[in-house]
């Protein structure tokens, strides 16, 4: 009997030891990735919000730098009738020692009011304060409210929202509609009430739940019966109210319970609405959904690392040259997978212990992978609003280097190399980073900021200005960012020199025009540079404005500036050159008269060049009946089924050698810029009004000028309009035609060159009371002074007569004259 007990005890001991060993090994493989940044401080800056439209709305994040008007379009707050606005502050409020606010004009140039509060209330862990905004505001005019909190260290924290003193009925109706619409999508039966608002189309892509639109199927709208439920609170943001147009955004998390884990998704919904006479019309709707990658063992299988439901814009990858390491960004988190040892590192994330935390999940930042070395080291850029850490509350770009521990003793670390503060919106920074952020072999990092390109030495943190005062159409960057070309001077039609730089090697070369010629940057085909040759005498001038400088030849050269391809046809000119991978599309012109041109067909050049696969190189997807399109990272080898994938994170975040780089360049003269918005975000920036109008048109959006004023809006237009005294109204526009376009004539009118816009787009200005000048024969123009659902009214200045023109006929008629419109906005 004793022998049996001994054997039993031995077996029990072996079993217990095995269990202990298993759990120790299992926990090592399943390290809690939420604790990756134990050295990164928890968020310190409090959140603020306003009480408006009978709810907490417009959550505001604090900035340590004065952003002025750069983030003004984040939200719009409707003031109560007595203008006494209630603001709340929550989280980390114990250190607030002062509250004051400023009210300024949209362009930030004019201070309307500056007030310091003497007292405020604290209850239930929150501060609540009343802002007694003075009676200095004009009704129905937007201003910027800057709320300034002072913490116990004496640091000022800035919070921004636009304010509008107007009747709140329309805004409340739109916000309530958006919230109710969103809630009903989670209940299939209630969602049937939403069908009337959809514009379901058979041509719409219903393959992914990552992006749902107003044209998607009802199944898409109702989450394909995925059984998801909201997690945490919903952030409601009123983005815009402009006349009868409104835009509302909802941000929240949803979760889905499975047998293996709880899946979390970040969701953003955007509603563009129009207020009709008797009801609201939903003009556009989008819902974007991105799964938060947890790093759990179930997500590693076969040759795939499953990322789940998301969208292309949320993903990027980069491999080391030896193929061992794959770094990938998903949901604004950076990971790296070691294919040989089957280990995963969560390199960088702003997320905290709670994935639904409002402060850490704020989505106004992103990550760009710069390089992945064969040792597993990763260089990357974090840009936008910094949610936590040393730079919390700053806006800019931080360059980091992740160093993989070479053995079991050395720990994985992250070192900050430099931080660049930037006074710009997140979308604008993202556009610049996506255009150019490249590390050369000489440890020079090149980045675009505003209208300049800088080279930063990673060894000394010194920088140089590579190119300044860049203008749209006057520069080009290769797809992989390794080559950059720019014209000398700010007039894209008069350049005599083009600089071409290989950023990988740092070698710069030049293309020079022959006497009497000009050269034009056209772009890159792979890394081969393409430019055009033109004669200055061939400048295409129409009604006093330069339309184009048609080229007589195109040349494509390699890194040694040796010709690879040439295109030239006697008697023909070239315009509108576009590149699609290895195919170049040309619009051919022939001369008519002394300075006119007509289109004479298209042509295509096919180049034999290797086109890189870009940031989506290792990303794949497959279709799931339940969850639709599911994305994954493709590995080169099978992931072991018996070996546990280990997940870890860096243990040190070092700032000792970090430099603060305030990039400065020459001011230069800048033309008027236009900003296109749609679906609640910035779509593009250009000095071409027609380009930005076209960009906003498809998104049911709007266009602003550089002073934040809305100058075109697709939705805010009545069905009919008629200017009663067209000649008198037009005089303010026509007397300025000889003085220039894209200009502001103080206290009078803004005038835009709308050449290339459509007749439909021009009706917005007629609806606002300003006739549109449309050039026809020679320097002659007519005025568009009215419209209805079927016709436009045309006024002839030379004889004072008017006539009707069908909308379709008008589009064709003005199209024959290149849609040469000049339009304006009255400033009073």
What does this structure look like?
- By secondary structure, this protein is mainly beta.
- It folds into six domains: 2-30; 47-164, Immunoglobulin-like (Sandwich); 169-291, Nuclear Transport Factor 2, Chain: A (Roll), CATH 3.10.450; 297-431 and 614-668, no CATH class; 481-611, Uncharacterised protein PF15525, DUF4652 (Lipocalin, Beta Barrel); 717-826, Alpha-Beta Complex (Cathepsin B, Chain A).
- Helix content is 12%, strand content 45%.
- It is built from nine helices and 58 strands.
- Strands 51, 52, 53, 54, 55, 56, 57 and 58 form an eight-stranded antiparallel β-sheet that branches. Strands 21, 22, 23, 24, 45 and 46 form a six-stranded mixed β-sheet that branches.
- A hairpin with a 2-residue loop joins β47 (674-678) and β48.
- It starts with a helix and ends with a strand.
